[in-house]
Design goal:
- Two copies of one chain form a homodimer.
- With 604 residues, the first copy, chain A, is α/β, with parallel strands linked by helices.
- Among the domains of chain A are: 94 residues, Ubiquitin-like (UB roll) (Roll); 137 residues, ATPase, nucleotide binding domain (Nucleotidyltransferase, domain 5), CATH 3.30.420; 104 residues, no CATH class.
- Helices cover 29% and strands 25% of the residues of chain A.
- Chain A contains 17 helices and 27 strands.
- In chain A, the strands form six sheets. In chain A, strands 12-11-10-13-15-14 form a six-stranded mixed β-sheet, with helices on both faces. In chain A, strands 26-25-16-17-18-27 form a six-stranded mixed β-sheet, sandwiched between helices.
- In chain A, a hairpin with a 3-residue loop joins strand 1 and strand 2.
- In chain A, helix 10 packs across helix 15, helix 12 packs across helix 17 and helix 15 crosses helix 16.
- Chain A is globular, with a radius of gyration of 27 Å.
- Chains A and B meet through helix 4, strand 7, helix 5 and strand 14 of A and helix 4, strand 7, helix 5 and strand 14 of B.
């Protein structure tokens, strides 16, 4: 069948374009830069990409849509964008709730304290201009001046640097600042320029960026943004599957994240009145999937058992080979990955928390859609990856949402009423991860939930659409808008999530012959981990029952680790040595994995 | 003034496109891939880009056109394409004589004889597939197998190679052939693949390509093509000036030559049923301007006194950073340049003729638009560059042409008649370089030309358009078509050309304190040098008067040198060591340069 082109207009955003008849409205929206939510990667199972066709003709609703949309919705043109294809020019309304919400990002983390020993060093030199009696080529003149004036020997000058060199040296009157990495000149800047490094913690959901002075090691600016790749699916597996199913050569997912990092770098530079050309080295840490998608490495094998990475070693890639627009000769360094689901961000977190030097028994977790857990015994590290899922990000939870304004982030059951706090003090619109965890703990402590997770009787428990739910904020309290509840189904999702994390902890303890009570410290890293009430996490059994003073929430340790790797060659080597020594345990092949998991899903 | 777009159609080629009103018809033609001749780089001085506007409106003829086109031509819409701009939709006729002619290219040269010691080596390995009990990443699995099975240690795998690796290893059932350069894997091919190298002699006018088996060193295929960059100007200075005047970021000149090399590589591969992906290393030799244009290095400073290169050292650049489509991780190696007008092709020629190892006094020349001359005394080399100009390529000569079918390549004055031979035995249409040289020598020997170059009386000498000319082929002999003549003006051009070359030779002799008669051998390299009658060159005084058995015409020695550098790391080092030792003499700063030059323009 011949592909036709139709004109599709998305409202109220006012974005429009030509869309082929074999492209779903979800794909069309993403192509036009509209961040429609898609948790399932376009398979019609998450029902988050709801849109309304206001005028024009689209394909008929699929079975999945007829099952999950109400007859009223169907009658009013509501569709799942991933299931609908244009059959003529269309006007489409995108409801706010179908858009990826802006969201808090954790970029704080402490200033990194390490003696700078950066991979790139700056040298200011002066050259004599060429003449009929001194016909040396520009590049050789520069490299010789560097050697004579600063005692530094270089073997090569980056090709892109050479492409701009001759007019620049002349316009700067034969004075310049050279950025040298190993034996290569990677940048030539005007005399006495800023010499910057960029550290990025590339999360599945969020990207944190730090601009660092490579000379002093000081962090000059920090900012967090959403990962726009989220339009390719909210969790790693959905995203990998979507990319694997793309026609080969489709680099859309990579482009999205590269453009986001480019914008982030430009924004960070603008904060300190610098330019991206001054960024002469970049470090990105992320899970293995984010790492592979950024570097455009193959991911098909990463999404199928036995889930092996294409590359696990550290990489030094020219930023231009990734598509980033920093100093044209700059390198992007990525620390090693450990396994298919334990990436360089885990290594960075362990580095930032100084795990190889710790005495005693320490547990370190980075909680997210995928949770990495390390058990460290006198510096020896064993790690597992737990598929904790996106429940704590608010996904698959009836009234769940991300940590955005209006999310209930803390709550308490007092007698029969609920006290709560929302992000930004806004009227409540849903529950984010820390609120969900509190709710579960409070219901268990009040005896409303039993160990098995069954929701018992309580004045606030009711039945709706065939399932029991606990009303946190009622319709009356919301002036007639739908109540905010936690359902029996939500509880089951949370049991799976927290069970996965606890299983990881237990398998690590079993494999090293240690007991819970021997754990001297629990380090909780990551944005979600920093916001949770630890006692709630202990109450529901996500974390082991230890005195609360043994727990330390350390914020974005992966971002801190990225800055260490950026500014210190010593830390970079340490990360590599540590990665080689980490013992990776594949959870699903651990003995009694299934029994351990079933037990761990119990509450308390 | 606002730029408008007009539709311009070029006949009889049938190429058409939208052309902005501020783009000359020459630029428009080049952009559309029409190889209109332009010797002057679009300055309106060579009058070679003649076209006819058949319909539509163009800008008014300029002073240059009114001076050089006849009133009839102007009345019939003839224009110089570089001077004419569209003022509306146009139809334009391109006469055949305004198109770059196909032309013989010299690719013969002897088979290279050297023990292969290539920069890239092939290793076949087998890997065990990943499993839940062996979760190593694909890249690490491969590098470890290489180390265990072949004892080769690699530190890195090229990023582009990694981007294709995972599906390929699986489709080849975990068997592969690795191409290793230094400590880097630059290509991964199916088991037992061809391992090819590409050597290119990149001339201003012609490109010669050689496909070489890197394992055996054998040349598998060779082919010559025109350098399409000729549409940017026929000589180096015109081309540099045109590129310098282009808006920054205009990489059209580079793209033309890169696409030509890509096509040449594909054609060479097709001859032996291989694919460009099998080419794991490339070497290009060329003059400094061609080198810089290929690598997209700055050329502005190369076209202005003191004419310094951006880079003179050897370079190893990823072929993808140049835009070539060979094995994606392959490198392009370029041997060192010596000066602004003495490039890596000169180094390659000296290497191929084994100059560093020669005893006694040897003179080596590569004659072209720019002629490089080296004087070698017991292996010590001094070199100069002579601006011999394009007269021997047929440019600036009334009936001159390149060495294409119908060109008179040899001639003799016998009594009062002319005997001649044309390329391809076709009816004569003009004179190529070797024919021009013979004509000059024959006229001098017959006493028609005196030492000063004045054309005396002879039955075949006549006056036309205010200047004297010697009729080589008369109107009658051409069935009424215009006679083929050599004019007094042509003789003056040739005196400048041959004088430039002889000046270079004389300055080298003076600077080393040697005399002509001490020269034991004269090596003449290059396409033109291979076709000339050496005795004619000696007669007119282009070459010193030595016994003819001291002269050796060696063909495309630069191409031979390129193959040596491609297949032997020993020869590659030798080229670099030699380049560092070459004493470059700037001709125009030599003592008595002007007197020497005036004397050298005399005939005999």
């Amino acid at each position: 069948m011949k592909t036709k082109q139709y004109h599709v207009e998305f409202e109220p955003i006012g974005r429009r374009g030509e869309c082929p008849s074999d492209e779903s409205l979800l794909e069309a929206a993403h192509r036009l830069g509209i961040e429609l939510v898609s948790l399932c990667g376009g398979r019609g199972t998450c029902h988050r990409c709801k849109i309304q066709v206001l005028s024009g003709k689209a394909s008929s609703p699929t079975a999945s849509e007829q099952e999950h949309l109400t007859p009223e919705e169907l009658a009013n043109g509501y569709r799942l964008a991933c299931q609908a294809y244009p059959l003529g020019d269309c006007t489409v309304h995108v409801p706010a709730e179908s858009l990826t919400a802006p969201q808090r990002t954790q970029v704080e983390g402490q200033q990194v304290k390490v003696t700078p020993n950066p991979p790139v060093r700056a040298y200011n030199i002066e050259m004599s201009p060429p003449s009929l009696s001194d016909l040396r080529a520009d590049a050789e003149r520069m490299v010789q001046a560097l050697n004579q004036q600063r005692g530094v020997s270089c073997r090569s000058v980056d090709t892109e640097v050479l492409r701009g060199l001759s007019p620049l040296l002349r316009s700067w009157d034969w004075k310049a600042q050279l950025s040298v990495r190993g034996a290569e000149v990677v940048a030539v800047l005007p005399p006495a320029s800023a010499q910057l490094g960029l550290a990025i913690d590339l999360g599945t959901t969020k990207i944190a960026g730090y601009l660092v002075d490579l000379g002093s090691g000081e962090t000059l600016a920090a900012q967090g943004i959403m990962n726009p790749q989220i339009s390719y699916g909210e969790d790693v597996i959905a995203r990998l599957s979507r990319v694997s199913r793309s026609p080969s050569g489709d680099t859309g997912a990579q482009k999205l994240v590269v453009e986001a990092i480019d914008r982030l770098a430009a924004d960070l530079c603008a904060m300190i009145e610098a330019r991206p050309e001054n960024i002469v080295e970049a470090v990105v840490v992320g899970n293995t999937a984010m790492h592979h998608l950024l570097l455009r490495l193959p991911v098909d094998q990463l999404g199928r058992s036995p889930f092996v990475p294409a590359v696990s070693g550290p990489m030094d890639t020219k930023v231009r080979d990734v598509g980033l627009h920093l100093a044209p000769g700059a390198y992007l360094h990525t620390p090693p990955n450990i396994a298919g689901f334990v990436g360089g961000d885990h290594v960075a977190m362990l580095l930032a928390t100084d795990m190889p030097r710790r005495n005693g028994l320490v547990l370190a977790l980075d909680i997210g859609t995928n949770t990495e857990v390390a058990l460290v015994r006198n510096g020896e590290i064993a790690s597992v990856s737990c598929a904790s899922g996106p429940a704590f990000e608010g996904a698959h939870i009836k009234d769940g949402m991300r940590a955005a304004p209006g999310a209930i982030e803390r709550l308490r059951l007092v007698d029969n009423s609920i006290e709560y706090q929302t992000i930004g003090g806004q009227p409540p619109v849903g529950l984010c991860g820390s609120g969900i965890l509190d709710a579960m703990a409070q219901l268990y402590l009040a005896g409303v939930l039993d160990k098995s997770g069954r929701l018992g009787d309580h004045p606030r428990v009711r039945s709706r659409a065939g399932q029991r739910e606990f009303v946190l904020v009622s319709e009356e309290e919301r002036d007639g808008r739908p109540a905010i509840c936690i359902t029996q189904g939500d509880i089951r999702e949370l049991q799976l999530a927290k069970g996965a994390i606890r299983t990881g902890i237990n398998v690590l303890l079993e494999s090293t012959g240690c007991s819970e009570q021997d754990i001297e410290e629990v380090v909780i890293a990551g944005a979600f981990g920093s916001y949770i009430d630890v006692s709630s996490a202990v109450t529901v059994g996500m974390l082991p029952p230890l005195p609360l003073d043994r727990f330390h929430q350390v914020g974005n340790a992966a971002g801190t680790g990225a800055r260490l790797v950026l500014t210190s060659m010593g830390k970079r080597s340490e990360a590599q040595a540590m990665a080689r020594r980490i013992q990776y345990i594949e959870l699903t092949t651990a003995p009694q994995f299934h029994d351990t998991f079933i037990k761990a899903t119990q509450i308390g």
